[in-house]
């Protein structure tokens, strides 16, 4: 069924110019989003592994475009995994503020963590709980909240299943609304075409929270919702993307967000010889890891299972950059030579090359895409790859 939709990707704003076969057509509602041709499989591209492109349906790019996260804000992504929208939010926050990413599924959170690392997001912390457990601790802490709710999807489900989901969606929406600061915003979205999971859920929410209002966004492309609420719908017939519903809701009042508890942190200044910590970020030791994050993500004292980026790990030979940590540093301006795409591709395929570069050299492609960190094997160089990727046998 998925094959009937036109596929799309997002381009990372700071990782160079991707090389994607065929034509790209802009997604109207999200600058940086593009439809690509059917024959192109982004996850097979070198630029996917450098984090330069991220496959994401065009419709799924709508909710974050509507949420419009701004630098310095606290954003709560309440149903975050596998992280398509979380990474989109993280890039908009651009190394500032705090992104709280929660999901009740441990398996899906593992993919979320990997996607955050691949996209080099330093402002996120991953909360290992569902909304039911988190809503109390996160009361009024967020400037903006995304509830991309579990839904029946685009393929349809039984009436009973849809009714159960609609009840869950309303419950999650009511809980999520409590985490928004006075005057803050909440985007409710699903990829289901049913009215029951969309317009009806919003209507029932507005009956329970009479002082909330729908904000009608100005955005090119999507149609109005079916109930005249001021929400938006994307129809497959119009753009070839998945069906989607998204509604922007505003909390009553005007006011500051509640501050989250913070912890004392001892930052590391120059833990890896020669490698400077990027401006505006903090690095600190956590066991045998060196973590890198925005000050808010580093200091916020919440129980979490992932925080910022794992920059390096400590072993018997000292600190060693992780592959994704190296990519994150290159993206933020760390110096290193540029390789031809042909050499870059061969390194990513696991080959060793006669480059004559010392171990620990950070390398990029000619177009600026961050490749990672080189090691030396005999007289030849090989690229450190994320271990999961090596194990997957993809190359
Ligand atoms: C539509 S998916 C989210 C997709 C995600 N926003 C993205 O763009 O990649 C819904 C997610 O909600 C999670 N979920 C279900 N019930 C939840 C709850 N009570 N609290 C938090 N997450 C929940 C599911 O595990 C699932 O990952």
Low-confidence stretches: none
Overall 3D form: globular
| CATH topology heading of the largest domain | Rossmann fold
Give the count of helical stretches: 12
Secondary structure tally: strands: 22
Helix content: 10-25%
Level-1 CATH class name of the largest domain: Alpha Beta
CATH superfamily of the largest domain: Vaccinia Virus protein VP39
Beta content comes to 25-35%
**Which cofactors or ions or other ligands sit in this model?**
S-adenosylmethionine
In terms of structural class, how would the helical and strand content be classed? alpha+beta
Protein architecture, described:
This protein has 395 residues and is of the alpha+beta class. The protein has twelve helices and 22 strands. It has helices at residues 46-49, 62-67, 84-93, 106-118, 131-134, 159-177, 199-208, 236-239, 295-299, 323-331, 341-348, 387-392, and strands spanning 8-11, 24-26, 33-36, 53-55, 74-77, 98-102, 124-127, 142-148, 180-190, 213-215, 223-224, 232-234, 244-250, 282-286, 289-293, 306-307, 309-315, 318-321, 338-339, 362-365, 370-377, 380-383. Strands 5, 6, 7, 8, 9, 10, 11, 12, 13 and 16 form a ten-stranded mixed beta sheet that branches. Helix 6 (159-177) crosses helix 7 (199-208). The two termini are 28 Å apart. The chain binds S-adenosylmethionine. The site of S-adenosylmethionine has 20 residues, from helix 3 and helix 5.
Please describe the structure with a list of short key phrases separated by commas or semicolons.
395 residues, alpha+beta, Rossmann fold, Archaeosine Trna-guanine Transglycosylase, Chain: A, domain 4, 3 domains, ten-stranded mixed sheet, four-stranded antiparallel sheet, binds S-adenosylmethionine
């Amino acid at each position: 069924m998925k094959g009937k939709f036109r596929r799309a990707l997002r381009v990372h704003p700071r990782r160079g110019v991707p090389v994607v076969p065929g034509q790209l057509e802009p997604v109207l509602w999200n600058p940086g989003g593009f439809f690509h041709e059917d024959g192109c499989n982004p996850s097979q591209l070198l630029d996917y592994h450098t984090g330069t492109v991220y496959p994401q349906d065009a419709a799924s790019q709508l909710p974050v475009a509507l949420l419009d996260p701004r630098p310095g804000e606290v954003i709560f992504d309440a149903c975050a995994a596998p992280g398509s929208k979380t990474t989109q939010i993280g890039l908009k926050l651009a190394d500032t503020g705090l992104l709280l990413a929660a999901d009740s599924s441990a398996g899906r959170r593992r993919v979320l963590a990997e996607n955050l690392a691949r996209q080099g997001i330093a402002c996120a912390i991953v909360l290992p709980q569902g909304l039911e457990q988190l809503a109390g601790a996160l009361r009024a802490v967020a400037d903006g909240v995304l509830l991309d709710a579990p839904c029946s999807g685009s393929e349809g489900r039984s009436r009973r299943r849809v009714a159960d989901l609609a009840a869950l969606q309303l419950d999650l929406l009511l809980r999520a609304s409590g985490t928004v600061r006075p005057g803050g915003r909440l985007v409710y979205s699903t990829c289901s075409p049913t009215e029951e999971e969309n317009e009806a859920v919003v209507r029932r929410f507005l009956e329970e929270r009479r002082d909330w209002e729908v904000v009608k966004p100005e955005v090119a492309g999507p149609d109005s919702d079916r109930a005249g609420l001021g929400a938006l719908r994307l129809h497959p017939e119009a753009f070839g993307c998945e069906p989607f519903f998204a509604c922007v809701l505003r909390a009553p009042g005007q006011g500051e967000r509640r501050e989250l508890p913070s912890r004392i942190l001892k930052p590391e200044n120059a833990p890896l010889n020669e490698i400077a910590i990027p401006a505006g970020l903090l690095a600190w030791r956590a066991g045998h890891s060196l973590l890198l994050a925005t000050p808010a993500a580093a200091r916020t004292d919440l129980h979490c299972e992932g925080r910022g980026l794992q920059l390096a790990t400590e072993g018997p030979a000292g600190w060693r950059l992780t592959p994704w940590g190296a990519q994150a540093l290159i993206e933020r301006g760390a110096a290193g030579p540029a390789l031809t795409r042909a050499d870059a591709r061969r390194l990513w395929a696991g080959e060793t090359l006669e480059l004559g570069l010392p171990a620990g050299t950070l390398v990029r492609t000619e177009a600026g895409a961050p490749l990672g960190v080189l090691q030396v094997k005999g007289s030849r160089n090989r690229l450190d790859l994320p271990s999961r990727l090596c194990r997957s046998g993809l190359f």
